[in-house]
Amino acid sequence: MKIDRLIGIITILLKNDKVTAPFLAEKFEVSRRTINRDIEDICKAGIPIITTQGYNGGISIAEGYKIDKTVLTSEELQSILIGLRSLESISDSSYINQIADKFSNKNTVISNNGNILIDLSSHYKISLTQKIEVIKTAINEEHLITFRYFYDKGEVDKIIEPYLLVFRWASWYVFGYCIEREDFRLFKLNRITNLLCMQQFFNKRDVPQEKLEFDRFFSNEIILVALFEEKVKYRLIEEYGIDSFTYIEDNRLMFKMGFSNKDNLINWVKSFGDSVQVIEPKEICLELKKNAENILKMYKEHDI
């Protein structure tokens, strides 16, 4: 992608006093003519580039424009590098390393072997990385995207104007304007298939600030009260923290938490088998009971 190459050229120029066009052409595997056009684009963006001809000539950024990396402490630089490495786990782009190089010079050295590893790709690294790259391209070039989306009511084909990639609640989402619904929506990437970047362009809309308050998509309207066996305590701690439950007399765990989606709540409770008893809401109790009766009936019909 051209934007990746432009970022890469800028980071190299920030790190070095002067480089040559042949060096950049070889580095990015493009022609010198392409590099010359890239330099023109960088100048148009407001970054002062100076080119000199002849012996000891080359390309450089005007004195006084470069970032003084000494204003950052080693701890701050290390935190930046950790963030860049975490992005590398869900990106096929090569410019992550080039950006990281910007924060290393003769006076400041950051080890690439840090003691913190963040992998944002979860269990779906290959498909997730591909989706993220397609969406990034669509956002940068202002193209519509189309995909099939799976949710609790079935599946549907969508066309949206993509605006943001969002990582929240341990998952990746694309935030955009849904053409069918005529409103801004949040779509979970793991529920998306058949993703395509369309040829059709869109004009960016002004996004109201309230639409960016993503917690509204996950309002905790359903309050679950349940008793759990102590043997599943590790799951409650892992998923909701040590303060999500209290002990009662028979050594069971009293759990109370808000949920936003009834189907997700029911599936989560069912994953505990007979190690949980739902107290409230009654509607959930009745659905779990009906589901258990249907399962029992199915096995009886098969003489099991």
From TrEMBL:
Family matches, as InterPro entries: CBASS_pafABC_assoc_protein, HTH_11, PafC-like, WCX_dom, WYL_dom
Helix-turn-helix type domain ranges (all copies): 5-57
Pfam families given in the database record: HTH_11, WCX, WYL
Domain WYL: residue ranges: 132-195
Domain WCX: 227-295
Database matches in PANTHER family: PROTEIN PAFC, PTHR34580
Annotated protein name in UniProt: YafY family transcriptional regulator
